[in-house]
Amino acid sequence: MIVDGRVLREDFVPSEVVHRHDEVNLLSETLEPLLSDDRPDPAFLFGPTGVGKTCIARYTLAQLREQEPAVRVAYVNCWQEYTRFRVLYRVLEGVDRAVDVHRSTPKDELFERLSRADDEPIVVILDEVDQLEETAALYDLHRLGHVSPVLIANREEELFASFDDRVRSRFHAGTRVRFDRYGTDELAAILAERAEKALEPGAVTDSQLRTVADAASGDARVGIGVLRSAARRAEQQGLASITDDALEAAIPDARTAIRRKTVEGLIEHQRVLYDVITDAGEIEPGDLYEEYERRVDEPKTNRTLRNYLTKMVHYDLIEAVGKRRGRTYRLVDADRGDGEKNE
Ligand SMILES: Nc1ncnc2c1ncn2[C@@H]1O[C@H](COP(=O)(O)OP(=O)(O)OP(=O)(O)O)[C@@H](O)[C@H]1O
């Protein structure tokens, strides 16, 4: 039944995006100066998870490179690359200038190397940029006239709150491209496009795709995950098409798989917070920070911890219950039907 499983993978960049034309156009216009050797303003892509920010950034840059192949693109996921060293290293790697760089190479030398790599413009996509712990990396990139950053984050307010004044003032100007959650019809159309490429004709009905879109509540990553899981289940049972039962079973399946992957991707300190919450069942912030500090050697500041927690809420790993005073954190129930997904 599955003819091309790649199409249902998370990192697949579709050759055509469904909807999001306004967002693609705004980003393309922002980057247009690159076509005449000028430097564009920074571009920001804001919105909740699974709404196509990464996909649209990659797609738009792939299109731009078709017009101007000299433009180089480096992709940095700041969830993993959260220090100045790691960001600069990843950008150098993205433009094939990372040979002979070691852990002990001074950061200033990385910066020097990047400043010398100025024969062609470089667009740096900084995904999950609100996870960056050393925002000096942004200051570095801004100083380089041949580097154009595209920054992706959930919320503008929290992102700018994490910047120091130097970075804030430099990134103040810049185009904001805002993404809303997909409606059921939009998500169903995205899923139909994927299903057409990935599955045999007739493997899934339009009404089933709407059920998936509805269950995913606007998150395309969840929707595609459900479709993938349902198709696999049906295939394992030797069926020629997806049954409603396979679909129902796939909804919690997909959420669990996505959650497992997100937990695996947590950095050490986030993981400790997650473990404390898991052990406690439900816990107040004060007790959470206290227990966290007991478990780590060099604790992060409360502000950083709050940032981690916000991110984990965005990623649907934990939920915050109650208002300021009396607020507690607990794990999100994997089997939840959803509909109350956090923004
Ligand atoms: N408009 C679209 N057309 C086709 N595929 C899409 C579209 N929007 C999202 N997708 C697909 O949905 C999945 C999730 O999208 P993406 O990773 O871009 O979301 P995101 O907003 O960057 O989320 P996060 O903040 O969690 O990283 C990807 O597989 C992507 O290819």
UniProtKB/TrEMBL annotation:
Keywords in alphabetical order: ATP-binding, DNA replication, Nucleotide-binding
Keyword Ribosomal protein: no
Lineage, uppermost ranks: Archaea, Methanobacteriati, Methanobacteriota, Stenosarchaea group, Halobacteria
Gene3D superfamilies in the cross-refs: 1.10.8.60, P-loop containing nucleotide triphosphate hydrolases
Family: Belongs to the CDC6/cdc18 family.
Annotated AAA+ ATPase domain residues: 39-183
Species name: Natrinema zhouii
One annotated GO molecular function: ATP binding
One Pfam family it belongs to: AAA_22
Stored SUPFAM superfamilies: P-loop containing nucleoside triphosphate hydrolases, Winged helix' DNA-binding domain
Protein's name in the database: Orc1/cdc6 family replication initiation protein
GO biological process, one term: DNA replication
Superkingdom, natural source: Archaea
CDD domains: AAA, HLD_clamp_RarA
